[in-house]
Amino acid sequence: MPLTSSPIRRTIVLALAGTSLLTLSLSARAQDQAAAASTEGTTTLEEIVIDGGSGGVITADGYVGKSSATGAKVDTPFLQTPQSVSSVTKAQLEDRNPQNLIDTVAYTPGVRVNAYGFDPRFDSFSVRGFDVLYTGVFRDNLRQPGASSSVFKTEPYGLEGVSILRGPSSALYGATGAGGLFNLVTKRPTEETLREVQLQYGSHDRFQGQFDFSGAVNDTDPFYYRLTGLARNSDTEQVGVPDDRIYIAPAFTWQPDDDTRLTVLGEYSRTKTGGTAAYYYDSTAGKVTDFFSGNPAFNDSVQNQGRIGYEFEHRFNETFTFRQNVRASTLNIDADWAFAYAPNAIDPTLIDRSAGTFDERLSAIVIDNQLVSEFETGAFGHTLLTGVDLMKLRYRSLGGYGVSPPLDTNDPDRGDPVDPIPFSERVDQDQWQVGTYVQDQIRYNAWTLTLGGRYDWVSTDTDSTDLLGGTVTTLDQSDRAFSKRVGLTYEFDFGLAPYASYSTAFAPNAGFNQETDAPFKPTESEQEEIGVKYLLPNSNTMLSAALFNIDQDNGLYYTVVDLPTGPANVQVQRGKLRSRGLELEANTSLDNGLSLTASYTYTAMKIIEGPEATIDNDVSSVPRHQAALWAFYTMPEDTALDGVGVGGGARFIGSSYGNDENTMENGSRVLFDAALRYDFGALDKKMEGLALQVNATNIFDRRDPVCSAGFCYKDQGRTVIGSLKYTW
């Protein structure tokens, strides 16, 4: 996320997105296909929840995802889904040991990470050129709303995996963006007993302890539990920016019979980091310096967040299944920040710094009701999904502005006291969103036709209060939209499945455009996509390719504008963007111990309508070419290297422009990662379950500058983390 001189003064955007990745019994034909896929020359599929569950199940074998509920809101094989889908599986998470959501998705196609350099405050990334922080990150079937700096943080250790659907997807999920959606699947209770404890130590004095316990409550009752947690105390590469966290996530499942299931999911976390992590950008020299832009003595950011919800499922008979998913969530973030912006007019060794403080609170409740009907009409099989979902959101922010003592370039890491800054602005927002949707998956022999439509109503009330002058500005907005999707797939007997689809999306934008003093219009997008997926016979290997064209109207982007209070980096609304490209992906986990994921993405993202100086230009920080390769190899048993696993990866990020005027350029770069694991059980059976693993990212410590919308940052440097894990 770009830095702003005023986190509260910038436009508040509630870009709300939703998903509900629900699991139900497949039709007879789909069940047969799934069973056949699970036996194609490999081991039994690894299902990550009890009997499939209802929370975005990912059915996978090692690195290879085979089916999920992401693409259709009902569990559907990837080969039958008429859009680009993929997953980050449990096996990938274990091998790469990601420390944040950015690390988690860094090897998936179409994803641009690190566009804002090192910044532990937000998990900002884009897909097919479009930002997904507010509109595309979902949790357990339900939309995960965000506003301004109030964005829910993700702890990867609490995830079973990530299920990904690329492209506009409002026909089922309501308000979403053009790039697609990333559903974060929370760990759920398991039937088998699981006990795990782990200690970690890493770069920048990073200490972490974590645990994961799951299983049946007793031997007779149908009750299952899971409890996952961690505590971390850590510095980072930036002075005054810690990365401390406490996380606890209890879960409970009651399954009285095969037709009924109730799962309760909870979470609480407290994260402490910095109000800013940026380096000072010297506009005169046109480069990022090594000076920390903030003030180490005035740079705390503490976020508390929690959620509680349930997933209920009941199958009435072979035709009808009802599900209701509910979640209530809340977060509070309290932060101080300072921002070095220009040389001091008197002393050239000093750099003037502004300062501010803000307190934001966000709470939301989301309910999704679904009815699935499975039936036949002649030669056609139907999986008909109908549903209604509701979201109520409340957001409040307080902000104030002041000054910090200048940055002393002779002692740049010194912390300088800042006088208390009173709040001067308040924003209150209430938003309701109601959506009703229907989808029919129609199967005839090897053909699958997917038809879907949805209508949404959104109402947003915003009050902006000048706490010093006492004036209140009220803005009421009402938006409504119809979204649709049509897709067609054909499955050959040997595992090849070409497809074509058309889909649309919209996202209401609460708040107003500070550049025009007018409300934002909804952001709308549409996509045409053709592609092919290939599940290789007798090999646990999935290949896919996709060509896409996305047009987006009225998108929101950061830019510098001259306000009455002075220049500020705020969000404005641009006319039209077009993203065209190619995505290639390969995933495999073979019987010889080798697992691999590889991807290549070509993205040409142009400004079709916008400021005159930017028309026909590339959008900033969107590289034309990206590629990634990660492989992990477990040495054979009964050899001298039994118990050893070694992994390595490379991420190529091509050149891009640093601003929409295309007058500055980000150079290309390749970042290398590695992993090494040893299972002590291979040495002595008495130590079975004990393993040591070391993961390193950016092992050559490449820290090049990267600019986006004219603001510049630096890549995160090398991190090395050692983990000692014991399972029993």
From TrEMBL:
One of its GO terms (cellular component) is cell outer membrane. GO terms for molecular function: siderophore uptake transmembrane transporter activity; signaling receptor activity. The keyword Transmembrane applies. SUPFAM superfamilies: Porins. It is found in: Cell outer membrane. Residues 1-30 form the signal peptide. It holds the Pfam family TonB_dep_Rec_b-barrel. GO terms for biological process: siderophore transport. Its main location: membrane. The keyword Nuclease does not apply. Residues 404-425 are annotated as: Disordered. Residues 80-180 form the TonB-dependent receptor plug domain. Residues 253-699 form the TonB-dependent receptor-like beta-barrel domain. CDD domains: ligand_gated_channel. It is a multi-pass membrane protein. Keywords: Cell outer membrane, Ion transport, Iron, Iron transport, Membrane, Receptor, Signal, TonB box, Transmembrane, Transmembrane beta strand, Transport. InterPro entries: Beta-barrel_TonB, Beta-barrel_TonB_sf, Plug_dom, Plug_dom_sf, TonB-dep_rcpt-like, TonB_sidphr_rcpt. PANTHER family: FERRICHROME IRON RECEPTOR-RELATED (PTHR32552), FERRICHROME OUTER MEMBRANE TRANSPORTER_PHAGE RECEPTOR (PTHR32552:SF68). Belongs to the TonB-dependent receptor family. NCBIfam families: PRK14049.1, TonB-siderophor. This is Iron complex outermembrane recepter protein. It comes from Rhizobium subbaraonis.
